Amino acid sequence: MTLRPSGQSLRKYDKVVATTCNNMCESACGMLVYVMDGKIVDIKGDPEHPGSRGSLCCKGSGQMQHIYNPLRVKYPMVRESLDQEFRRASWEAALDFAAERLQRLKDEYGPEALYIQRTGRSDLNWKEGAARFGKLFGTPNVAGQGPICCESPGVAAHYLFGARELGRLMNPSQDWINSKCILVAGSHMGATEVTTMNWILDARENGAKIIWVDPRFHPSMAKADIALQLRPNTDSALGMAMINVILKEDLYNHEFVEKWVKGLDEWWPLIDDMPPERAEKITWVPRERIVEAARAFATNTPASMTGCLGTAQSYNSNNTNRVWGALLALTGSIGVPGGGWNWLHNCRPPLNPGRDLSEVRRPLKTAFTAGGRPSGERLTEELPRLKRPCISNKLVPWADISAANFANAIFTQKPYPVRGVWWNGNMLAQMPNTHKYSSAFRHNVDIAIHNSFHPNFTYQHAHVAFPITSAFEREGLVHHGNNRLMSWYNKCIDENWECRNDIDVVIGIADRLGLGDWFPCRDEMDPARGDQAAWVKFFNQQDQFTAGCYKETLDPRTTPKGGVMWPAGTEEEAMSYQTPGASVRGTWIMYREEENYPGTDKRFPTPSGKIEIASDALRDLGWDYLPQHREGGHTPVSATEEFSEHPFVLCTGRIVSSFHEMGHWWPWTDELEPDRFIQIHPDTAAVLEIADGDLVIVDSRQAEIEGFAWVTAETDPRQIWICCSTDEYQLFVPPSTNRNVSFLIDDVVNDPVYNQAEFKAQLVMIRKKGSDRGWALERARNYIATFPDYQVNPESFYHEGQTMDGELGHYTNRVAQENAPRWDPVSEKIIHEGREYEPGYYRAPITPSRSSEDENAPALGESPGAGR
After folding, report:
1. Which residues contact 392 (CB under 8 A, 6 or more apart)?
2. Contact partners, residue 569, CB within 8 Å, separation at least 6
3. Residue 435 CB contacts under 8 Å (≥ 6 apart), including other chains
4. Pairing outcome for strands 485-489 and 564-565
5. CA–CA separation, 864 and 396 (whole Å)
6. Distance CA 467, CA 666 (A)
7. Three-state secondary-structure class, residue 143
8. What is the mean pLDDT of each run of 10 residues along the chain (868 residues)?
9. 567 upstream amide cis, omega within 30 of 0
10. What per-residue confidence (pLDDT) applies to 380?
């Protein structure tokens, strides 16, 4: 059994605040924060929390070093151009600067020239407040992180099972103890969702079989009964081979399939063409292991399925997740305890920045002054109609648009100018083909606004930076929790330095642009700022799924701990345990047979009312009617010319000590994994004469990066694995070895359905720094040639009288790729239309000077606020 810490601090304190860990991952762990004289002295896990049960990972307890981190951005910073030094400014001056630049942008290029990026790591009020601002400003280019991160499984589930927007978790992780078998695909849960992993271990102790699917044999996979280590982006072939075994051995639930599944008969020819013997030659997984896994999953029911980014960030993501969902459907383990399709990290609720914005011709009422107070002036300007479509080339016409689309748009200024960006976190460092994105900023962005925690890579590309509070300096909603979970985090201390909340930045700029009337939830003591709790209630009550979720029903100090699982449309639903045995309030299990999906008259709200393996809707969009294996855009099969120069498959992922930028900036967590490592198999390392700890270079067609070799059998000999979310501006490691892996990732050829960039499957070359690339490449080619060929059908073929599609992807984006800006490894420049441009590059951080608006301001590092 897992240890259950008491949660009691040994330090002196005068106050304990029950709260929730906010967006260090999606586990939403309960916290007890100990405060003495207005300063946090300790953070412990809350043993009364039904999800985390007193546990915290290093990112939870390590936030002590985030709150008082001297590296945090403490004051508003402004500069006229990216070549100048930042200077410290007052909040009023920084807001004036941002608003003036945005108004100039709108006047010269139109409102669509502004691109706004919000992430799951951000506060709900920023995510929704920024979307609200975008609609009022008139830009269609309001992007979310989902198409870069982990929302494509939800898109697949939408068409397979039916759902409001994204399909999401059916059963909570606490319900895994009722499962007889759990299949985990594409997740190192023990590093990325540490406390959630405890429920897998409890289920295994309770007798459940654990099947783990991943390209890497990591410590989480080591806990499995059956480990399936596969080639990235081949999950669909693996899943189809398992289904082949289950159908041929008649191991599926006939009653459930006949009543609730559409398209299995039509799918059979594709399944019949993917026996385990063939799948072995596509996936790297031995046929015996495929058969063993298929029998275990089908004969140990109820079975559950979960996963994460590994099934999202690849070309064939949509088909992969449809295949895994179909495998689950064959067992009938849907809508029952111990069952369910329960993808982690794919969990935000339906979002709506305001139903009032649908009245697009409604005149504004009252102007606000720059200080946030009503001026008494009546405005007659009407809300703008969108004049141009958003910049997006994904097939799905709903949900978020992808930030990956904007590198070329900003660089080329086509199809129309995009010259303003407003975002948070460290988004630029995580964009695929970061060289191109960075270069575009330096040449074509007139105003970049950054809501800042740290002086990171994204901050270094901003014109104005606003210091943002930590989750301990404000209250709000943990809206991005696993298990369809909404939780509340409480303000524990006053704001440090001159930090404010994200919504305050939105309101301050909106006031200056005459949009303040549309932001009514103001702080009673300071109308220039927002009321955090009131805004959460406003936004959640825009949608029936979340209308009952707000501070009064979520606060762990005054309500049962653990939050609420939406849908919960009323306060009564949010306050009740709707299922016997549930440990969390709200809707415990979705798709139960005795209930219709909320707001519909069907159990499965698809056109047929069934689980649709065969999807007319996806076919109408131009995608596969039936799910099948498709090679990604950068594989040994689909890109043979590229493969000849880059003979290894690259896969990426997260590590335990960080989540995006969080953790990398804290000494405690950085000490756990102090260097950005590059995993290489011992046999491969021997061929290339690389020793453990050697400095190596990894290059793709997009860029090259350096790092230290970790020689380990965790990765396949044909694969290189690199962790993500590093940043050369993080101070604890040499900048040259900390450039993020996103520099290597192609931004053009990606998942056609939802624009997921292929972070899990690129082609690269690796060599010891100082060695000759030609020598290393020849040895690498000869070594890779010793492995079996891939049995992929590149062209259409006949099978039992039917014509079947080939298994390559629809790489129409390759046309765009030929004409897109690209990195040239010889000149080390970005090349576009015959001209050279400086790529993204590192320069030493600039110490901000004192503000010309406030000559008497304390120097950076001195604090006039509570954090001094």
Report:
1. 401, 402, 405, 755
2. 544, 545, 546, 547, 548, 598
3. 702, 703, 743, 823, 830, 839, 840
4. antiparallel
5. 49
6. 17
7. strand
8. 64 96 89 96 95 92 92 97 95 98 97 90 88 95 85 94 90 97 96 93 97 97 98 98 98 98 96 97 98 98 95 95 98 97 84 80 43 43 76 87 85 93 91 91 94 94 97 92 92 97 97 96 96 96 95 97 96 93 95 94 97 97 95 93 97 87 86 88 98 97 94 98 89 83 92 92 97 98 97 74 73 63 84 82 52 37 32
9. yes
10. 40
List, in sequence order, every residue forming a beta bridge with 262; answer none if it has no partner.
Answer: 612
Say which residue the tokens 């005795």 belong to.
594
Please name every residue paired with 304 in a beta bridge, in sequence order, or none if there are none: 182
Amino acid at 687: V
Give the span between the Cα atoms of 380 and 837, in whole angstroms. Answer: 45
Which residue carries 């006047």 as its tokens? 107
d(CA 118, CA 351): 12
**Contacts of 258 by beta carbon, 8 Å cutoff, 6+ apart:** none
Question: What DSSP element (H or E) covers 599?
Answer: none
Residue of 752, 141, 746, 36 whose CA lies nearest to 394: 752
Beta bridge partners of residue 823, listed in sequence order: 830
Tell me the residue type at 772: D
Q: How far is CA 403 from CA 108, 252, 352, 645, 828, in A?
A: 23, 41, 20, 29, 24
Q: Which amino acid is at 439?
A: S
* Three-class DSSP category at 447: strand
Instruction: Spell out the residues 6+ positions from residue 84 whose beta carbon is closer than 8 angstroms to its own.
Output: none
Bridging pattern class, strands 719-723 and 209-214: unpaired
CA 470 to chain centre: 20
| Block residue for tokens 């901003």 | 462
Q: What is the residue-wise DSSP string for 59-92?
A: HHHTTHHHHT-TTS--S-EE-SSTTSPPEE--HH
Q: Cβ(632)–Cβ(313) under 8 Å?
A: no
Cα-Cα end-to-end distance for the chain: 43
Amino acid letter, 389: P
Residues 453 and 423: beta-carbon distance below 8 Å = no
Q: Kindly report the backbone phi and psi dihedral angles of residue 456, in degrees, each rounded to the nearest multiple of 5, phi listed first.
A: -90, -170
Q: What's the confidence (pLDDT) of residue 802?
A: 64
Position 9 scores a pLDDT of 87
**Per-residue H/E/C for 343-403:** CCCCCCCCCCCCHHHHCCCCECCEEECCCCCEEEEECCCECCCCCCCCCCCCCCCCCCCEH
Q: How far is CA 525 from CA 90, 372, 495, 519, 528, in A?
A: 20, 11, 15, 16, 9
- Sort strands 829-832 and 835-837 into parallel, antiparallel or unpaired: antiparallel
Rounded Cα distance, 830 and 290, in Å: 45
CA separation for the pair 438, 459 (Å, rounded) = 12
Two tokens, residue 455: 């002086």
pLDDT of amino acid 189 = 93
Distances (CA, A) of 45 to 17, 21, 427, 774: 12, 9, 29, 53
Longest dimension (CA), the chain: 83
Q: Report how far residue 843's alpha carbon sits from residue 838's, in angstroms, rounded to the nearest whole number.
A: 13
Q: Write down how long the chain is.
A: 868
pLDDT of 578: 87
| Radius of gyration of the chain, Cα coordinates, nearest whole angstrom | 26
- Tokens encoding 373: 């107070």
**Which tokens is 203 given?**
């289920």
Find all residues with CB under 8 Å of 766, minimum gap 6, and list them.
648, 678, 680, 684, 688, 690, 696, 697, 698, 720, 776, 780
Contacts of 786 by beta carbon, 8 Å cutoff, 6+ apart: none
